[in-house]
Amino acid sequence: MHIAVTGASGLVGSALVPFLTTGGHRVTRLVRKSPGSQEVAWDPAGGIKELSWVEGVDAVVHLAGENIAAGRWTGARKAEIRRSRVEGTRRLCESLARLGRRPKVLASTSAVGFYGDRGEEILTEDSAPGGDFLARVCQEWEAATEPASRAGIRVVHLRFGMILSPAGGALKKMLLPFKLGAGGRIGSGTQYMSWIAIDDAIGTISHALGAESLRGPVNAVAPAPVTNAEFTRVLARVLSRPAVAPMPAFAARLAFGELADALLLSSQRVMPTRLQASGYRFQFPEIEPALRHLLSQ
Known about the structure:
Layout: E1 2-6, H1 13-22, E2 26-31, E3 39-43, E4 47-48, E5 59-62, H2 75-97, E6 105-111, E7 122-123, H3 133-143, H4 146-150, E8 154-160, E9 162-164, H5 169-179, E10 192-193, E11 195-197, H6 198-210, E12 216-220, E13 226-227, H7 228-239, H8 249-256, H9 258-265, E14 269-270, H10 273-277, H11 287-294
Parallel strand pairs: 1-2, 1-5, 2-3, 5-6, 6-8, 7-14, 8-12, 9-11
Antiparallel strand pairs: 3-4, 10-13
């Protein structure tokens, strides 16, 4: 296949592109800088600049968006998070809809933040959305693909949980304090964490491109979500370190503001119902084997 990818230099994209090219696919990166070889310029505010260069691509993977965990959520930062995801997705999809030979499928990332803080409730793709900032952004983010859907492109919204990789994201940030014996649960530790190993994140994207039965929201999470306390115990055990330095909820809020409630203290117990029904088989369905693989332990 000929596959166009936005966000190719990010945590997921930098693993996805070599996976695809090794598998024999041709990849064109959609980039915001001056394009080089096998690259096409695009802009979240204006879409794809040279449509003819992506004419006839078979599939598009849309990974680009402002990092929601990069800092405290000021008013300006929240506006940028929303703009990068919602406006950027809409402009991309408007560009794809104008192509004479359109891609057959668009795999566009979303997040389990769609569901908001739901405690112990088991969540599937049919569950109602939440009402906080991140949930509203996810709803608008998914709705922004409508131009592509109207143009006959099969759109899959991959609602990712926490993507585990030692190369970046939450796991990388946890490693140093845990290795120093300064890790611990956050808040009560009873909040559920829906996660997915980077290997399965890549596998899920590849599967979504080829599984024609998949359309609309798809929970891209492992089938065994864990509480924060359980995750903490397992990570400490894998690293052979104690986990005796919990972070109280008030301290998390003091350090991270609104972001703490949305990403650290909220609970989403999400199941990959549609993904499994479509035949996807996880390489790492359980947290301890996943962490031992990722951390070479």
